[in-house]
Specification:
By secondary structure, the chain is of the alpha/beta class. Helix content is 63%, strand content 13%. The chain is built from 18 helices and 14 strands. It has helices at residues 2-20, 25-62, 65-113, 117-123, 131-173, 188-208, 210-234, 236-242, 245-297, 303-320, 322-325, 327-353, 410-418, 450-455, 465-474, 490-493, 496-510, 526-539; strands spanning 176-178, 181-183, 361-365, 370-379, 385-395, 399-403, 424-431, 436-439, 448-449, 487-488, 514-518, 544-548, 560-567, 570-575. It is elongated. The relative contact order is 0.09.
Length: 582
């Protein structure tokens, strides 16, 4: 019971925000109310059909032709109403689903991507595995299964309330007869349906309970397998160059082995559950007749009364057996709720990381003239000290080379200066209204047009086409000027050197006030690197260039050199006098 209450609380926490949202709450509430009203109307038609059963079968027993014809016409009216309601219930249900899914997808994408939260979640270990599946699949399943189960539960409750009264009255009309003896047992038909359903529910839960955990794991294993397939596709060149196909095949088959093993466990459990539920449903077809037949053969019922009683008994039994018939859906839905709740918790943890008291604080200063770090200590996520910068000032137009041994934390220092690395303490201040851009060694190129890749993170049409063409030519990519509208996976089509040239063109177009180059030209030959730095100095004379690099040829391209040197457990940033550290 405690687990059920907790699950309902989590479900409500996930579902309620949509129906309270400022953007779509009116449409959502109206659609939900319409779907519920139609469900209630369908239950009402079921009650009318139950009453029709008694009249129709009595007409057959009495061979009353006129009554038979009129009842057929009445049934046609009920059937037509049922068809219209069923069609519009499906239509409005699907309309509600897509609107609800659109809102939840936008919310989760926002919480995941806003202010670098997706990156902080990775730094924390990303306890919510495969966020893509959570957003693409689990939200859809949460809404689809939730509406189906919710409407099914509502229908069962209303059906139970409607038919219990009917069945109780029919129990009074035809008392229980056993061995020719009449027993006065008020509502015995209701109690029989209740006992049958309770027994079925208990056994169903005992047999099917492991499906909740198995479904949770299945979704995880499936997502892991898809993720590694995508990894192989994206790194096809390196795998082919290393001849790693055999290793990758083994790795993928190992991942798929987990999918298969868990699937076999689901198959075994579902086989046991299906044995019971299939038998339960088959018995439920004749069980009402078994219970009612003594009264019928004793003359307590007409044929119409027998059919009405059987149908009413079946409706009550089905309503009480909702848990039995929907157990598989409930198990899948519970797994989805657990996954979304875990994703929610990971999102919250990522956001909380940006507000913990002991963190690197990045602020904008209206009167500042330089990016400055004060008493900055950069740490690893586990708390291990990595880099210290007691007093670092990077004024506008500065040309600074950052050196230090590999693994000393140079790239992590850049992440802290850019405001995406929260682990540590101290303060980084950025002049108000000034922009910072970081160029990593491997640039990110979104899948789409070449124009979109160059303009990123701005929109593809943010810059005049002739200017984009001209900048491409200046960075040595003039041959791509005619392919700006071509859609492709440019991160795979272009060499790393070409990607780095494209990133330089992106920086020239955006013209940031501070440009941090993290070995952003390391894949180019030295003359090309020198030419591109000269281009940046000419095109962006007011932009501060702060570079990480190991080549001695970078020294003449910068006016100042700082280096990370070992100081106890960490590396401390100091002014350097020699060549960059190798």
């Amino acid at each position: 019971m405690t687990r059920l209450i907790a699950a309902v609380a989590v479900m409500w926490r996930l579902a309620a925000p949509y129906f309270r949202s400022a953007e779509d709450r009116q449409a959502g509430r109206l659609l939900l109310a319409a779907v519920i009203a139609i469900e209630l109307a369908i239950v009402g038609i079921t009650v009318l059909v139950n009453q029709w059963n008694a009249r129709f079968y009595n007409a057959l027993q009495e061979r009353a032709w006129d009554t038979f014809v009129s009842e057929l016409l009445y049934f046609c009216v009920l059937a037509a109403a049922f068809i219209v309601l069923a069609v519009y219930q499906l239509y409005l249900n699907q309309w509600l689903q897509i609107r609800w899914r659109r809102w939840m997808t936008a919310q989760y994408l926002g919480h995941w991507l806003d202010d670098g939260n997706h990156y902080r979640m990775q730094l924390l270990g990303d306890a919510a595995d495969n966020p893509d599946q959570r957003i693409a699949d689990d939200i859809n399943l949460f809404i689809d299964r939730g509406l189906a189960i919710g409407l099914g539960l509502l229908s069962s409750v209303v059906t139970l309330a409607s038919f219990v009264t009917i069945l109780w009255g029919l129990s009074a009309q035809a008392p229980l007869v056993i061995g020719g003896t009449t027993w006065s047992f008020p509502g015995y038909l209701v109690w029989a349906a209740l006992i049958y359903a309770v027994v079925g529910t208990v056994f169903t839960h005992l047999i099917g309970r492991p499906l909740i955990g198995l479904n949770f794991q299945q979704q995880r294993y499936e997502a892991d397998f898809r993720f590694h397939l995508v990894r192989v596709r994206e790194n096809g060149e390196q795998i082919a160059l290393l001849g790693g196909e055999t290793a990758e095949r083994a790795r993928l088959l190992d991942r798929f082995g987990a999918v298969m093993a868990n699937w076999y466990a689901i198959m075994t459990r579902q086989k046991k559950l299906t044995f019971f539920t299939a038998g339960f449903n088959q018995v439920s077809t004749v069980f009402p007749f078994v219970v009612v037949s003594p009264a019928y053969f004793a003359g307590g019922f007409s044929l119409g009364g027998l059919m009405q009683t059987s149908e009413a008994f079946g409706s009550v039994q089905r309503a009480l057996s909702f848990f039995v018939t929907s157990y598989r859906q409930l198990a899948e839905w519970q797994a989805v709720i657990d996954r979304l709740a875990g994703f929610d918790a990971a999102l919250t943890a990522g956001r909380a990381l940006a507000t913990v008291p002991e963190r690197i604080v990045v602020s904008t200063e209206p009167n500042a003239e330089a990016v400055a770090a004060e008493a900055l200590e950069v740490r690893l996520p586990a708390g291990t000290p990595l880099v210290a910068a007691d007093a670092l000032a990077l004024p506008a137009g500065a040309r600074v080379l950052v050196g230090g041994p590999s693994g000393s934390g140079k790239s992590t220092l850049f992440r802290a200066l850019a405001g995406v690395w929260p682990f540590g303490r101290g303060r980084v201040s950025v002049p108000a209204g000034r922009s910072v851009m970081v160029l990593p060694q491997r640039p990110y190129l979104p899948v789409g047009t070449l124009a979109a890749a160059i303009a990123y993170p701005a929109l593809p049409d943010a810059f005049p086409r002739d200017r984009v063409t001209e900048v491409l030519g200046t960075v040595g990519l003039g041959g791509l000027a005619g392919r700006l509208d071509e859609e492709a996976h440019w991160g795979r089509m272009l060499s790393l050197g070409e990607q780095q040239r494209l990133a330089i063109s992106r920086a020239i177009l955006h013209a940031p006030d501070y440009l941090l180059l993290d070995e952003a030209t390391a894949s180019l030959d030295e003359p090309s690197e020198t030419a591109l730095y000269g281009l940046l100095r000419r095109r962006l004379p007011e932009t501060a260039l702060i570079s990480i690099g190991h080549r001695s040829t970078l020294m003449p391209l910068h006016d100042r050199h700082v280096v990370l040197e070992r100081d106890g457990d960490l590396h401390r940033l100091r002014e350097a006098t020699g060549a960059p550290a190798a």
